[in-house]
Write a structure and sequence with these properties.
single chain; about 725 residues; alpha+beta; Methylamine Dehydrogenase, Chain H; 5-stranded antiparallel sheet; elongated; nucleus; WD40/YVTN_repeat-like_dom_sf; NOL10_2nd
């Protein structure tokens, strides 16, 4: 916090950017170097974002003293700041620069703005409510609450009146001045005062349509060495209803009493610049400002109290009632804020300023006030066993905690945990070694030590999503797999999440009730894992219907297929045990037509994709069933009849039952030949696949004998012969001889 002394009065700058007098554009370029600037790091920002992009023009407090409304550029905009939150409430852009504005409600919700393009804008909390124009360019405005009249003065001799209750312009007041610069209302009795370019003051009453009095200010400055004509540029009335001050373009401030024509006091700013702002302070001081300096002086004797010189040209000054805060709108980005404890206390919305200034007065070199202090909460004080210091001078209450001397904090922390430094040192060494290991070349990527289960689940989820893709998108699946792997590894390398797999403080406790509540499926899988140990998985053999019933209408082709199947069946049964063992050593793929019907071990991915069947382990396999029970079970099997297609049925003593069977032929029912084995024949083999013959081409035959009929030829002869009445065309066989 920067402290200046003017006339033995301490002035504290509570603006974050007040320490720099360099141009704002240069300060923005060197913003990165500000982290090494001790003065910038020790700044205090009273209100967050209390600034404009280029410059601030006007600022005022609301009547309830809870908000500040300010206007600035560029782009032209209105900003409202919430003093309870010490932050900006909102900003609203306008089409033109603001000249003056007036808040017509107790809070910020209703305001009137005079713009530089002769427009008057009425704003509400939802935005601009209405906009109108005046005949001449306006310079100032004021609002009289009792009769809802808005008064606007400008570059003409007329005072424009607009009644907001009726919503229309009233007859304007015509003054004797060629142009008017400022207009103000007396808060005590409603006297309207206007200052003109000719150095004349005129007084009107809202209920009278004529000038009540006229005052020539130039007469009091006749003996002065003036560089320009003393136009009236500022005017302000006191709450007593009798005293007022007027500022001129030559830098003079004149204090008047309404009962006298001569000024009571004349104050010169010594700069020869127009007076921008005037205000009365409850302490009996007058606050006057030009574009260079803000002077605070006593209204009785004119003695200077102090002066404030901001780094940029001044546009407006505002002081809360009975407060030591001074807000300045200027040509810089930051709106300057100064605190003068001798002028008044801090407002109730920032009482901590008093604590700061008290410490600065006791500590020489106030710039390093809080460099040796540590902010701690009440919980931290209890952990350090220092909560008994609450209420003493050792702790300074601030916000939700306290300021504690850094040396005392370090001592208390060392006593509370004497081995903290050693633990911290070991932890840093371990982190350093772990970091060096990452730079080495690893043959295989291992799971992290911390939350290995979580990393494994992330990888499995990526693989499961890839397995769900269709076969038509195999090329796309490879791309997705690569992309998914990159995403999983990126999570481990991301600065935001890598601590989840490195820091043991983030270890997930999978035995906790909260984890089990959020992951019921994983808990179920772990529980069922032990119960499923008594089951063995049975691979499901795949059957391919193939093309065995491609043409069910041709009986001769079906007979040939059955003959081939019969041969294959008896050939398979003739195999001895050695041949079967040799065949079982090979793993065949049932998707290839040359290996159908043979035991096949499915790949690991296909095991996950399809359903699985389980066969219960019979206790007799473990030798737990007596010999008598096995004999009784064998007798039951012998007495039971076997159904069609059932080869064998066995029952276990524990209630288990197993059955071996052959699936029936999928074609339509066929007639058995004499001497043919009634048992179903196995499916499979290369000869079992039906081959497409010349008959499938459906060519027109030249003629000849059908398989069983007369001279039909082609299809006609074949089907006609089946009826036994075929002639030349196949009889009823729809022959086409």
């Amino acid at each position: 916090m920067q402290v200046t002394h003017q006339n033995n009065v301490k002035i504290y700058s509570v603006t974050s950017g007040s320490k720099s007098a360099i141009p704002d554009w240069l300060a923005k370029r060197s913003a990165k170097s500000l982290k090494n600037d001790l003065e910038y790091r020790s700044r205090i920002e009273l209100i967050q974002d209390f600034q404009f992009p280029e410059a601030s023009l006007k600022l005022k407090f609301t009547k309830d003293r809870k908000h500040i409304m300010a206007t600035g550029v560029y782009k032209p905009q209105i900003r409202v700041f919430d003093l309870d939150e010490l932050a900006m409430k909102f900003d609203r852009h306008t089409e033109c620069e603001n000249v003056a504005f007036e808040i017509i409600s107790d809070d910020w919700t209703k305001s009137v703005h005079l713009q530089a393009d002769r427009t008057i804008e009425f704003h509400s909390q939802y935005g601009m409510h209405y906009k109108t124009r005046i005949p001449k360019f306006g310079r100032d405005l004021t609002y009289y609450h009792p009769n809802c009249d808005l008064y606007v003065c400008g570059s003409s001799s007329e005072i424009y009146r607009m009644n907001l209750d009726l919503g229309r312009f009233m007859t304007p007041f015509v003054t004797s001045s060629p142009a008017l610069n400022v207009i103000k209302l007396n808060p005590a009795h409603g006297l309207l005062g206007v200052g003109g370019e000719d150095g004349q003051l005129e007084f009107w009453h809202p209920y009278e349509r004529r000038s009540l009095a006229r005052l020539d200010v130039t007469k009091a400055l006749l003996g002065q060495d003036l560089e320009r004509f003393p136009e009236i540029t500022a005017l302000e009335f006191h709450d007593d209803g009798l005293t007022f001050v007027a500022g001129t373009a030559t830098g003079h401030v004149l204090l008047y009493d309404l009962r006298k024509m001569e000024p009571l006091l004349v104050k010169d700013h010594q700069y020869g610049l127009p007076i921008k702002s005037l205000a009365f302070h409850p302490t009996g001081n007058v606050v006057s400002a030009d574009s260079k300096v803000v002077r605070i002086w006593n209204k009785d004797d004119g003695k200077l109290f102090t002066a404030v010189e901001p780094p940029h040209d001044i546009n407006d000054v505002c002081i809360p009632d009975d407060s030591g805060l001074v807000f300045i709108a200027n040509e810089g980005v930051q709106m300057q804020t100064y605190y003068i404890p001798q002028l008044g206390p801090a407002p109730k919305w920032c009482p901590f300023l008093d604590n700061l200034t008290e410490e600065l007065e006791e500590t020489p070199g106030g710039m390093t006030l809080y460099d040796d202090y540590k902010f701690v909460t009440r919980k931290e004080l209890s952990r350090l066993a220092l909560d008994h210091l609450i209420g003493t001078n050792v702790l300074k209450a601030y916000m939700h905690g306290f300021f504690l001397d850094l040396r005392l904090y370090n001592k208390a922390k060392a006593i509370a945990n004497p081995f903290e430094y050693e633990e911290f040192k070991k932890k840093r060494i371990a982190e350093k070694l772990e970091k060096d290991k990452k730079t080495r070349i690893h043959a295989t990527r291992k799971l992290p030590k911390v939350n290995a289960g979580l990393a494994l689940r992330l990888q499995k989820e990526g693989e499961d999503e890839e397995d769900d893709d269709s076969d038509d998108g195999r090329s796309k699946k490879k791309k997705n797999k690569k992309k998914k792997d990159v995403d999983v590894s990126a999570i481990k390398e991301d600065d935001r999440f890598k601590s989840l797999f490195e820091d043991e403080d983030y270890q997930i406790d999978e035995n906790s009730a909260e984890w089990k509540l959020h992951h019921p499926s994983e808990v179920f899988n772990k529980t069922m894992g032990a119960k499923m140990s008594n089951f063995k998985k049975v691979e499901e053999t795949r059957e391919d219907s193939g093309d065995e019933a491609a043409d069910k209408d041709d009986d001769d082709d079906d007979d040939d297929a059955r003959d081939r199947d019969s041969d294959d069946y008896f050939n398979d049964n003739d195999l001895d045990s050695e041949e079967e063992a040799a065949i079982a050593k090979f793993k065949f793929d049932p998707r290839k037509p040359t290996t159908k019907g043979v035991t096949y071990e499915r790949p690991e991915k296909e095991k996950k994709a399809g359903p699985a069947m389980y066969e219960y382990k019979d206790p007799k396999d473990k030798g737990e069933v007596s010999f008598a029970d096995r004999v009784r079970a064998a007798q039951n099997e012998a007495s039971a009849g076997l159904g069609r297609g059932v080869l064998s049925v066995s029952s276990g003593a524990a209630g288990g039952k197993s059955m071996t069977f052959r699936p029936s032929f999928r074609g339509r029912p066929t007639r058995l030949r004499a001497g043919e084995d009634p048992r179903p024949r196995p499916t499979g083999g290369d000869d079992q696949r039906k081959k497409r013959g010349v008959g499938e081409l459906r060519l027109r035959a030249v003629g000849g004998m059908g398989p069983r009929g007369g001279r039909g030829g082609g299809r006609g002869g074949g089907r006609g012969g089946g009826g036994g009445r075929g002639g030349r065309g196949g009889g009823r066989g729809r022959g086409r001889g």
